[in-house]
Amino acid sequence: xxxxxxxxxxxxxxxxxxxxxxxxxxxxxxxxxxxxxxxxxxxxxxxxxxxxxxxxxxxxxxxxxxxxxxxxxxxxxxxxxxxxxxxxxxxxxxxxxxxxxxxxxxxxxxxxxxxxxxxxxxxxxxxxxxxxxxxxxxxxxxxxxxxxxxxxxxxxxxxxxxxxxxxxxxxxxxxxxxxxxxxxxxxxxxxxxxxxxxxxxxxxxxxxxxxxxxxxxxxxxxxxxxxxxxxxxxxxxxxxxxxxxxxxxxxxxxxxxxxxxxxxxxxxxxxxxxxxxxxxxxxxxxxxxxxxxxxxxxxxxxxxxxxxxxxx
Length: 312
Ligand code: 3PG
What we know:
Layout: E1 2-7, H1 13-25, E2 29-34, H2 39-46, E3 51-54, H3 61-66, E4 72-75, H4 85-90, E5 94-97, H5 103-118, E6 134-138, H6 142-153, E7 157-161, H7 167-172, E8 176-177, H8 181-187, E9 190-193, H9 207-210, E10 218-221, H10 230-239, E11 244-247, H11 254-261, E12 265-267, H12 277-297
Parallel strand pairs: 1-2, 1-3, 3-4, 4-5, 6-7, 6-9, 7-8, 9-10, 10-11, 11-12
Helix pairs in contact: 1-12, 5-6
The structure holds 3-phosphoglyceric acid (3PG).
The site of 3-phosphoglyceric acid has 10 residues, from loops.
């Protein structure tokens, strides 16, 4: 049984060692493809893989086509918008993620970016403090919850909007629940985005919503760049010179944003949210364990494609 770890952006060495140990202890073989730049390299090594572990690597219908023996693919991380689920399902390949495993790393980065923007990217001069400001958590999942917890430590007042989470859960965690997304944006100096990228959310954060933010508002995006309507963001930043945007995914129009808005806009050089040794270990080892459990017991706990359509 061959388990392939294919990562354009590799895991920390210590995580790879842990994955190797889990795979080999189960009697399987580990193959490693790191830092690949040519998709043909992936096509070649995936050909005899029974299982595949990826990060944000795109698992397209073409990858699936080359992976003739593949039975399971695990996205070591939360967002699985990089997996072509219909293509997996059509081939009876189980697709999974590892929810929660890298959440703390992303949450810490979100708060770090907030401080960085409040201090004008450490440009000399007077910045602002987070203490006493309102923060809006847009989607109260694993990351959103942790952002709320850390923000409380900064003395921020925490609001949240998530139509998929019971009000009581948020209220029990001392979070003020907003009934509409507009209410969240209009009340909060900082909004931290934690929605997934899917057909409903793509380009959903645009002019109308962002223009509701109070004076000096800052949007922090550690979710996905696809959820932002980038053209509308430019229009708004031109009109509202008080607003700021920080993102962990370089925008498609990054050069334009920097040229026009300077330090009101910030983007990490590469997606940094899950780039900690701890997050790599948590997510990588969880992925390896899920694969072993799947082969040994048929466990499909974290499956994200439709179970009833996949015949194991
Ligand atoms: C996730 O969805 O888990 C994060 O975006 C992390 O992605 P990465 O593993 O590519 O850094």
